[in-house]
Fold:
Amino acid sequence: MMGSTLWRRRHGWWAAAIFAALVGGAAPLHADEASDPAPVAITTADLKGVSTPSADDLAKGDPGGTLTGSAADIVMADPKAGLTIADLVNQVGQNRIAINFVWTLVTGFLVMFMQAGFALVETGLCRAKNANHTMMMNFMVYGFGMFAYWVMGFALQQGGSAGITNLGGMNPLNGEFKLSLFGKDWGLFGTKGFFLSGSSYDVGVMVLFLFQMVFMDTATTIVTGAAAERWKFVAFGISTFFLGAITYPLFGNWAWGGGWLSQLGGNFHLGHGYCDFAGSGVVHSVGGLTALAVALIIGPRIGKYNRDGSPNAIPGHDITMVLLGCFILAFGWFGFNPGSTLGASGAGSLRIGSIAVNTMLAGATGSFAAVLYMWIRFGKPDASMSGNGLLAGLVAITAPSGFVNTVGAAIIGFSAGFLVCLSVEFVERVLKVDDPVGAISVHGTCGLWGVLSLGLFADGTSNYGGSWNGVEGSVTGLFYGDAGQFLAQLIGVCTLVGVIFTLSYVFNWLVEVFVGQRVSAEAELEGLDLPEMGALGYPEFQLVTPGTGHSVDVGR
Amino acid sequence: MQILAILMLLGGWMIAVGGLVTSDALAIRFVLAFLGLGTSLAGLVTLNQTHVQNAIWKKGRH
Structure:
């Protein structure tokens, strides 16, 4: 670093001089094209701006920030040859990729922090006697899921996704297993990138892995909410590993990794094929439907239903925790959706502004709709359902966020807010499935709605580098003239319900048979903290379960 | 019943995807997609019924 600084001090002035000569030499070319309306000509007058700080300036420092960053900072391939046009062009290209790397990584970090939000929401909505267990599931899902994804999940999902131009376009992930049926190729899973080794030891692949990994972890943590307060920890670990290694990556490949759903446009002329900008289907529906599968198998909590099938409310223990968690999730969603451009520079990535606003709007309208519904129906603006309404709006806008305008986003979020309330009642009262946090409704139902809403509301204005899923033009929904796009989304929903749910159900049924999914009735009544985790979440409190008369004296 | 439900779930998906390869007409593809989704959802309800029938609260154990 020191050598580099000295070099800059000595040679900065002639680097600027060479730059001036090069641009000056190009000036006549621009002059010849003066009749063209668009280009802004670079003239010798512009060269006045090309300067480098003197040795005295460097010694003084730059409190105003006007001297830092100049031609002297451009990396030269051959310092002896001086600054060349090739150096400038390469620097511009690398700067674009650097911006995109930083953007994708930082938004990935935001998504990672969503785990904290999920942990707070789920723990707050559960009873205090299960606080340690619920929090630990949300904590360990990060490690279990990540390990599975590193071993094989990422390879199955992205191993055939080819180069991503926003991340440099390198192409080490170039193996997709395909079946050839009915004259078409059906991509099923990737074959490169196991353990991130071999040719996938690449800087762009690492950025992609981090971003995709935190998405997968979001899907796995959805399940813990629906199965909370009765799930055996070992069964949770096995189920999470399978979801991170197989189920999630399979659908991820079909939608994002170049698999058959993404090719419905090219193969069957259905719009741009199945589109899912940030994962209403890939992340939330997969998580929500797996949550439904596990909740079916594991059964309702003791005391949830009476003998006549009528449900009892089992309130959570900390609503402040729940709403704080919702705020953290809403904050993290600004990584989830805008980050899914995988860049902030080039190929239409500046749409991140629109995506962020859509995200914000849908969350707000979702929360508003849920409060309205609960207030009208039950006479009070229910806090937990207003939180779920916020999350429902965010889940629903996740798929269409990159393709719709603000009016569409507001409608999608608002309808999701209503939908989640109806779905929670339907799941609890009609299906009689016990979901302590509403995960099936928030992520499953509203995730599917998000997938479909893209096919309705995509307004045809977003064009990420000219094509999406290899089909020229912009993604356009039914309301804007492309019924084929809606059909592609419908096929995606059929796949989620028909294949992904079934796969999750069968695997978790096998876990039930060989390991057992549910804790004993005694452990459930006592609370899972001591029997499963060996320590209470709140050791200085006496915990009493209302209605059961069962208490745990933890004061001793 | 569980096997039947699983077959309905998978069968629904096959109906929907089968529509893509059997016809180029968008209307027919739509009809088959909705039919397939309906079949899968019916399978889901059937599967749920098998679990509700054996639910612990129904047997009065808890």
